[in-house]
Amino acid sequence: MSSEVDPQPRDRYEGRPLLILLENFVLACIGALSAEATERVADLTRRGFGAPPDADWMDVLRTQLDLGPGICDSIRARWQAAVAQLQQTGQPAEPVAFAPGIVDANFAPLIDRAGE
Predict the structure, then answer these.
(1) In 3-state terms, what secondary structure has residue 82?
(2) Looking at residue 108, what is its pLDDT?
(3) Residue 90, CA atoms < 13 Å, CB-side half-sphere
(4) Structurally, how many domains does the chain consist of?
(5) Which end of the chain is more exposed for a tag (fewer CB within 10 A), N or C?
């Protein structure tokens, strides 16, 4: 099973590159984004926002979307709470299922604002 959000166009992602970036950002915050996926998302983020090739992609996204410095801490706390709740019911914690839920619940205004 992959631990990254698939950037292949699907109904959810069609014409919505910011959605892909945000979901991968969530995965990176919880430590569930592979090194290979990180390289791809970093390149896409830098090119999309016109950042230098050596810029930290997560800092670029945080700055461009005004996400604030504690965003990853908040996401990690939610992830840990979700994992604990799922463990109580004997269900596995799936990072790839968690990321879209966080993005939908918290970042929809950013996506709408971006015209996506």
Answers:
(1) helix
(2) 80
(3) 0
(4) 1
(5) N
